[in-house]
Amino acid sequence: MAKRIDVSGLTAYYGSHKAIEDISMTVEPRSVTAFIGPSGCGKSTFLRTLNRMHEVTPGGRVEGKVLLDDENLYGTGIDPVSVRREVGMVFQRPNPFPTMSIFDNVAAGLRLNGNYRKSELNDIVEKSLKGANLWNEVKDRLNKPGSGLSGGQQQRLCIARAIAVEPNVLLMDEPCSALDPISTLAIEDLIGELKERFTIVIVTHNMQQAARVSDRTAFFNLSAVGQPGRLIEIDDTERIFSNPSVQATEDYISGRFG
Amino acid sequence: MDISTQNTEAPPPAPQPTTGETKRAARGATRPGDRIFLGLSRGSGILLLVIMAAIAVFLTYRATLAIGKDHGNFLTTFEWNTNLNPPVFGIAVLAFGTVVSSIIAMIIAVPIAVAIALFLTHYAPRRMSGPIAYVIDLLAAVPSIVYGLWGALVLVPNLGGVFSWLNDYLGWTGIFSWEGGAPRSMLTVGILLAIMILPIITNVSREVFRQVPRMHEEAALALGATRWEVIRMAVLPFGRSGVISASMLGLGRALGETMAVATVLSPDFLIHASLLNPGGGTFAQNIASKFSEATEDGRDALIASGLVLFVITLLVNGAARMIIARRKEYSGANA
Fold first, then answer.
1. Residues 6+ apart with CB under 8 A from A71
2. Helix A118-131 vs helix A151-164: angle between axes, to the nearest 10 degrees?
3. Residue B65 belongs to what domain range?
4. pLDDT digit string (tens) for chain B, length 335 residues
5. How far apart are the first and last CA of chain B?
6. Do B244 and B111 fall within a single domain?
7. For the whole prediction, is pTM greater than 0.95?
């Protein structure tokens, strides 16, 4: 189930451009860790190195180690496809498969992984939709297309799709930035429930959101445009927002830049 | 059309002194530029309808004349003898040949075209896909008579081996039996048509696959899909209606192809169960080979057969539109 993430000396490139440099951190299982920082500081890039999605971008390349419990995701002989089955991801824009029904969207990952009997699929889909607080809204229209839902419902559908395969870690890349405040609140409540089962890492531009949902907060920054992003500090969320140990963090949080 | 016309026709201006206010409030269509453009675009639309109507009236009129004189059954007679008095002709063989050769072409071309399009958009390195796409474009630019010559001089002499192999292993089906005649048969025509329609289906499919939103592919990747699974989950379903449209464009060309078929096929007026034995004919090929020597009645008869081809093409397009519309709510369009 939920696993610890241990990153050491991680550097990521887009072609010859170094996007993030020498990042090390530990993420505890069953916790929510928020990544904050100005645009272009490499939060999302770093997040995408945690499930080997970074290398999908043309020119994307990673150096360093990411340990999931004791297994190095970048070790030799590790298949990125199997990494992504273990580390789920929710994207900035809700992206349910437009050609699939609600049911098929949630079942999509399961069908990749193996053969399930129809009754098993039904059970898992129901459980996942309940886990994403969406079951009551969609249980009567599971065979309707997922693209007919509202933005917030679509994003919860994507969360249901991600948790249906029981990943060890759930990565969320600004999951609420395209949503209205009510839907955002629903997702934030959901994150609080999900952290009992998963290790969650969330990138957010909204500092109040980081303060509300996360246990730990990591602040990323870059010294100048074109320079690689770096991890400035990671600490308990309460401490980051009350008494950070680095001046830049305090400046960013209090709105002096960014 | 209705709505835009209503919107752009301004109500008669009230007799008021022309101030700056009322000028600005006037509808767009009263400005000269808008008026000219409206006239041009509306005129073009009407022109299209007029041309279509003129063709339809012409075809129907001449076809009715011919069918009135036909002493055979226009739909079922296996004969095309317009020099007799009264003339005897029927389109059964032509309809069969046209449909069968096009179906063969589609069966061969669509899977290959989709595979090429997928390769170009999702597998080939960028510096390779450019040149390949260019070569495919070139293939589309080759005139059909050149395909016909190639078919007659290269394809036909070299198909004998394939035909006897098919006869040995699949001859028992009847469809693939071969009596050893020159390979100028429906299958040969189908293969040639497949090569001819390959570029258009490939190009349109490639364009469709390229437009699959990156976020859908990433969604599949993040679930742990392999490259093929990404294509199956996100790319193919998204591109489905586009591939159907592309195939219809290809089918349209296959149904109407004239010179290449006329050069390769050795026609007769029989329906052959075997695709390998020479014979048969298509609408376009029949018109091309008979038109120059036809009498007035013979021309009318050919025009009647052309009208049938026109109707078949319309039916095929209608069917394709229905297939696309049936799954509209699942299309990528409302993503």
1. A78
2. 130
3. 2-69
4. 344 444 444 444 444 444 444 555 555 557 889 999 999 999 999 999 999 999 889 999 999 999 988 888 888 889 898 888 788 899 999 999 999 999 999 999 999 999 999 999 999 988 898 899 899 989 889 999 999 999 999 999 999 999 999 999 998 888 898 888 889 999 999 999 999 999 999 999 999 999 999 999 999 999 999 999 999 999 999 998 899 989 998 999 999 999 999 999 999 898 988 998 898 999 999 999 999 888 888 999 999 999 999 999 989 888 888 888 876 666 554 44
5. 27
6. yes
7. no
Complex ipTM, two decimals?
A: 0.90
The distance of A239 to chain B (nearest Cα, Å) reads 33
B108 and B17 in a single domain? The answer is: no
**Residue of chain B with shortest Cα separation from A53:** B222
Total domains in chain B come to: 2
Q: d(Cα B26, Cα B15) in Å, to the nearest integer? A: 13
The answer, yes or no, to whether the previous bond of B86 is cis (omega within 30 of 0) is: yes
CATH for B302: 1.10.3720.10
- The Cα-based distances of B274 to A35, B152, B167, B271, B284 in angstroms read 69, 20, 10, 9, 21
Asked if residue B14 belongs to a domain, the reply is: yes
Q: Indicate whether B78 belongs to any domain.
A: no
Same domain, B47 and B116: no
Say yes or no: B226 contacts chain A, CB-CB below 8 A.
Answer: yes
Amino acid at A84: R
Chain B hits for A56, CB-CB cut-off 8 Å, are 218, 221
* Domain contains B76: no
Cα separations in angstroms, A133 against A130, A139, A155: 5, 11, 11
Contacting residues of A for B218, CB less than 8 Å apart: 53, 56, 91, 95
- Helix, strand or coil, per DSSP, at residue B208: helix
All domains in chain A, ordered by first residue: 5-253 (3.40.50.300)
Instruction: Write down the residue that tokens 């050609």 correspond to.
Output: A99
Helices (H), A114-180: 118-131, 135-138, 151-164
